[in-house]
Amino acid sequence: MPPRTDAPARRLRTEVWIVLGLSLGQSGVYAVVNIIARLTAEAPLRQQTTALNPSRSPRPYLDLTYQLLNIGFALVPVALALFLLSEPGRRATSRIGLTFSRPWRDLAVGVGLAALIGVPGLGVYALGRALGITVEVQAATLDQYWWTVPVLILAALKNALLEEVIAAGYLIERLEQLGWRPASVVAASSLLRGSYHLYQGIGPGLANVAMGVVFAEYYRRRRRTMPLVLAHTLIDVVAFVGYSLLPESVLRTLGLT
Predict the structure, then answer these.
(1) Residues of the chain whose pLDDT is less than 70?
(2) Nearest to 15 by CA among 112, 81, 101, 91
(3) Interhelix angle for 9-21 vs 76-85, to 10°?
(4) Where is the CAAX prenyl protease 2/Lysostaphin resistance protein A-like domain (predicted)?
(5) Three-class secondary structure of residue 90 per DSSP
(6) Residue 47 resides in a domain
(7) How many CB atoms lie within 10 A of CB 157?
């Protein structure tokens, strides 16, 4: 466990609430409200849908502009978290292992984690749809333009950086500085991750809690977010780009549409 800083605990707690309130914590609150609204709607969850990467304008280049702005501004809390974690003589990226110092090892771990999480995740989604506790998730509803696939890849990278830097690196570092026990740290990180996925239904929320436990424990032991970012990016790229490229009949067979 890293040594405590000289900053008062109250200041650190306030900082954590501010960072979460500007990023994943805010998303979590909205997702909780969203799942309550879905559960109390007339239509059951199995008949409801959600789109992860919707089109934002019928005009192609205006749509592209909105997509890029959304990605760029979503990364501002990441920059804030890294700024707050930085110390004299030590960059925050080095502190949380967001570096390219061991690319092949990180890539191998990332691919392994992606397979460990991604394959069972698809099964959990299918099971959730069958049980009626998961909405129909449309991973990408963008029209097919020359920029569609690059934007989906950037969106996957954005999600990975936002979630792994804040939910894993930043939050775990700060909670440990506040003296939290390892089990409590892992629980907080994983429950946060599950909360902001509840808009997809109860199934994805629980699946992401499980993913959060694996990722949080890995970070707690290894102090590296780069493999987590690679794994998360790979999972989302397969979901987003695969969804946009697969024929409708295949998507229907997989229960994705």
Answers:
(1) 1-7, 243-257
(2) 81
(3) 160
(4) 146-238
(5) strand
(6) yes
(7) 18
Contacts for 150 with CB less than 8 Å, ≥ 6 apart: none
Number of domains in the chain: 1
Which amino acid, residue 216?
A
Contact 173, 26 (CB under 8 A): no
Residues in contact with 51: Cβ distance below 8 Å, sequence separation at least 6, in sequence order? 138, 141
Residue 3, domain member (yes or no)? no
Residue 2 falls inside a structural domain = no
The amino acid occupying position 231 is A
SS3 103: helix
Q: Are strands 136-138 and 49-51 parallel, antiparallel or unpaired?
A: parallel
Sequence-separated (6 or more) residues with CB below 8 Å from residue 77: 19, 22, 23, 24, 162, 166
C-alpha 232/C-alpha 163 separation (Å) is 9
Note down the domain range covering 105: 9-253
Nearest to 109 by CA among 12, 226, 250, 190: 226
Alpha carbon distances (Å) from 79 to 83, 175, 184, 206: 6, 19, 26, 28
The per-residue pLDDT for range 73-115, each reduced to its tens digit, is: 999 999 999 999 999 889 999 999 999 999 999 999 999 999 9
In sequence order, the 6+-apart residues with CB closer than 8 A to the CB of 123 are none
Q: Give the total residue count for the chain.
A: 257
Please check whether residue 162 is in contact with residue 229, taking contact to mean a CB–CB distance below 8 angstroms.
no
Q: Is residue 1 part of a domain?
A: no
